[in-house]
Amino acid sequence: MSHSTVEFDVVVVGAGVSGLFALHHFRQLGFTVHVIEAGDGVGGTWYWNRYPGARCDVPSMEYSYGFSPELEQEWEWTEVFPLQEELEAYFNHVADRFDLRRDIQLGTRVTAATYDDTSARWLVDTDAGDPFSAQFVVMATGCLSAPLEPQIPGRDTFAGRSLFTNAWPKDDVDFTGLRVGLVGTGSSGVQSVPEIARDAAELVVFQRTPSYAWPAGNRPLDRELQRRVKAQYRDLRVEQRNNYGGVVGTSGAVAVPLPRDVAILDASPEERLAAVDELGWAACRAWNDVLTDLEANELGAELFREMVRRVVDDPETADGLSPRDLAIGCKRPILHTDYYETFNLEHVSLVDLRRGAIIEVEPSGIRTEQGDFELDVIVYATGFDAMTGALDRIDIRGRDGVSLREAWSDGARMLLGIETAGFPNLFTITGPGSPSVLANMVVCAEQHVEWIGALLAFMRERGATTVEATVEAQDAWVELVNGVASKTMYTAPNCNSWYLGDNIPGKARVFLPWAGGLPAYVERCDAVAAAGYEGFAFS
Ligand code: N01
Q1: pLDDT tens digits for 256-314?
Q2: Ligand 1 mean position, distance from CA 366 (Å)
Q3: 378 lines ligand 1 (CB under 6 A)
Q4: To pair with 499 at 20 to 30 A between CA atoms, which of 133, 199, 449, 457?
Q5: Is the distance from CB of 14 to CB of 448 less than 8 angstroms?
Q6: Alpha-carbon span 43 to 61, nearest angstrom
Q7: Over the Cα atoms of the chain, what is R_g?
């Protein structure tokens, strides 16, 4: 069989938040770019996760590109926190507005990427025919894009419909009159529950670990406020990069205010309860020691449980929804609309799997140690193989045929979350070791793409063919990433999370993102570039 290999300067994998901007930016720098996307549409996360209630937890006016002042001005947001539909429409608008579609190949999955030492080029294989050759490959594959298939026996025997929040069908799913079971109570499950409950005849929520979830306070976006924020966009974009999480809190979207300068360990029981009366759900985090001291954290957790008891009518359900032996700040905070209130509805019930686990799925429903539940639909909101999963599912081979899976078998190792030693000219947008999931993804994606674009231009100017992270610089960065995380609740003794890879059996337990905040990270990236890309080797 004859191959015709098409050549590009850059192949970008993924047409989500990062891939769309990468295409635009690298094209503007004069490089030939081809984007390969597995989905049949653009938008990445906002293409796949179209479950009922899917909504971003970063305010719309900040979860938007800053690269085009015209785009900023012309797009109108309708709510403080945007729904999936609105974000999907926004990213489609961007694709049209900047004429991106002609270089995007949809419905095509990249299966392998192989570095050829002799030509110093990458060969990129897909499930749709001939390979591509590229000098540079940019993995814009997302941090939360590789679905976790839950290992529940009998899952395929279910006679009703099985749905996954992370690969939701495009057709309107109608739950009217149906008995629905939902497995998983992370962000996706918590957002889905109130929406599914609206139509379903019965909703049974199977919960293995209760979450800490805070009311989002979402509302329509006032036109006048939107106009004012738009007038300040240039300053706002600078402020975002100077903010720990890349979110300044415009449009009144501050769901969890900053702590007051008071320690919960110094407060009396009466003062702690008075804080709940005054601040409600925010009370548990209103202290300066809750995120730094485990004993203080547990006192904060008790204030959270107090709120659950105040809102949820049935004491047993309230107890079931109460997190225990789990530090606030270990897992990603969840924002919701009416999640706890939904459990006060007659037709909604909780199965607290801490009292008896799921045994299996059977044709008629879910069998647990607490009894059998007959269902028409099962919704799995069971999450992702985060940060590394999308890369792991591609057979990536660098110098000397070494596979990335092998290189990362003891945990991902990257320099600045951008490149891995042994894999020249292969970049990752928001990879392990960068702020990524701990910050505003749009801001992070733009910063990475711009940084990589400047590097490519630098190489073109110098006549360099390859760039590669050095092992020494990479080791030093990984050590710094681990050191910063070790001082936070992300690595508390009772913490198990997808940040640490705990949700994937056999995955190396390493804290993956950079927890030192966006400003320190951006400063580091800028300093590395200013020093002629210190820590990177060129040939
Ligand atoms: O996934 P998760 P997610 N049997 O991993 C449970 C972003 N996001 O899709 O905790 C029973 O958080 C699992 O239980 P446990 C955001 O960054 C953002 O909800 O492992 N249960 C857990 O309850 C978020 O953090 C938004 O004990 C099983 C749940 O499934 C990230 O995506 C919205 C199970 C998985 O929760 C992932 O969120 C949505 C089993 N076999 C997502 N296997 C916004 O708001 C797993 N579980 C922007």
Answers
A1: 667 789 999 999 999 999 999 999 999 999 999 999 999 999 999 999 999 999 999 99
A2: 19
A3: no
A4: 449
A5: no
A6: 17
A7: 24
